[in-house]
Amino acid sequence: MNFDGRPYSSPSRVNSGALDFRGLCTREKSLGKAGQDVAYKCGKLQPNASGLLYLQPFSIPLLPASDLRSTPNANMTRAPVICITHGGGPMPIVGPMLGDKGHDNINATLSNRIPALLKLGTPDAPKAIVVVTPHWRPDRPTVTGTAEPPLYHDFEPSHPPQSWDISYKAPGSPEVAEKICELLRNAGLQPVKDMERGWDHGIFVPFLLINPKGDIPLVQLSILSTEDPVQHYRIGEALATLRDENVAIVGSGFASFHNVAIQRSLYFADPNSSEVQLWLGRVREWNKVLADSVLNRDPKERLRRLQGWRGFPYSLDMHPAGEAEHLMPLMVCAGAAANDEGAQFTDTFGGVEVASQYWGSTGIL
C-alpha cells in the first residue's frame, strides 16, 4: 500500500497485501524532547470511478501544545508506566480507512500523547516495552519469548475484511522475556514462557499508531484468568525494577468502560441523547473514583483501595461480572508504578470519556 495512488486488485476486499502501517504512517514532525507535538500522515481507502480502491492520505490531528506539560518531580531516569485505551478491535486502524471517525480521539492520543510519554525518537526512548494484554488469560502469568513473534488476528467475523490484512513488524526480546520470568519467579508467581502465541490486537493495533517504525522490541505479557486485583498488582510490583533498566511497561485495555453491548449502542447513538448523557455521567463518576485509587502515591493504600474496586460506583456497568479483563492491565500498571506520581487524562469514545493513566513521565493533563 502506497501514497502514489496505485490501486488494489479487488474492489471489494483489500487482498493485494497486508496493511502495513510502517508504510502508511509517517511523522509530520520529528519527535524532539518529550512533549513536542507530533502528527502522523496516514492513508485511507477511496474508490475511484472504476471501483478500484486507492490509498489517499489523511492526517491524525495534532494535539494542542497547551495540552502538554511536565509532571512535577517526574523521575526522568526511569522508563514510564502507561495504561492505554486501545480502542475497539481493529477499528482504530480500519475505521479511518472506511470513513469512521469514532476513534479519532483515541487515535490522536495513540499517535501523539503516548509517543511523547515514551519519549520515542529521543535518546531516552525505552530499550524495550512490556505490553500487558487483556486478551490472553491463562492461569499463570505468561510471556512471549521469541525474537520475531507472529501476529494473532483475534477479531470477530463481523469486523471488516481488511482487519485480517493488518500487519505490523517489530522485534521481540528473548532477553527481556527471560528477565520478566526471573523477576516473577523471585516473587513466587510461577511464570510461563510461550514460544508460539503471536501478538494479539491489544498489542499490534495500538502500536501501529504509537510506533509505526517498529524499531523498539515489544514483549507481550498475559493477565490471569482470575479478576483478583491483588495477583495482578503483585505482577506489576515484581516488574517495577525493569523500569530502572529503561524498559517501559504499557497496559493495553479499556479500564474506564468495557461493557460491549452498551458501548455498541452508544457508539451509534446521538451524542445529545438521554442515553449517552446517562452513561457519560456514570463513566465520569467511575473514572474519578478509579483515578483517586490508582494515582494514590502510597503503594499500600493504592492496593487497599483497588482490592475493593467492585464496590466502586457502577462497577458492574463498567465491567460486567466475569468480564473485567480490560481492567486488569491497569492493576498491573498500578503495581509497577511504585511510589511515582501519576496522572490521568481522558478521550471521547462513544460519547463518554475513557481514561488513560501514566506514571513517571512528562504528561498531558
Automatic annotation (TrEMBL):
Its cofactor is Zn(2+). SUPFAM superfamilies: LigB-like. It holds the Pfam family LigB. GO terms for molecular function: ferrous iron binding; oxidoreductase activity, acting on single donors with incorporation of molecular oxygen, incorporation of two atoms of oxygen; zinc ion binding. Residues 93-342 form the Extradiol ring-cleavage dioxygenase class III enzyme subunit B domain. Keywords: Dioxygenase, Metal-binding, Oxidoreductase, Zinc. InterPro entries: Extradiol_dOase_DODA, Xdiol_dOase_suB. Belongs to the DODA-type extradiol aromatic ring-opening dioxygenase family. This is Extradiol ring-cleavage dioxygenase. The lineage of its organism: Eukaryota, Fungi, Dikarya, Ascomycota, Pezizomycotina.
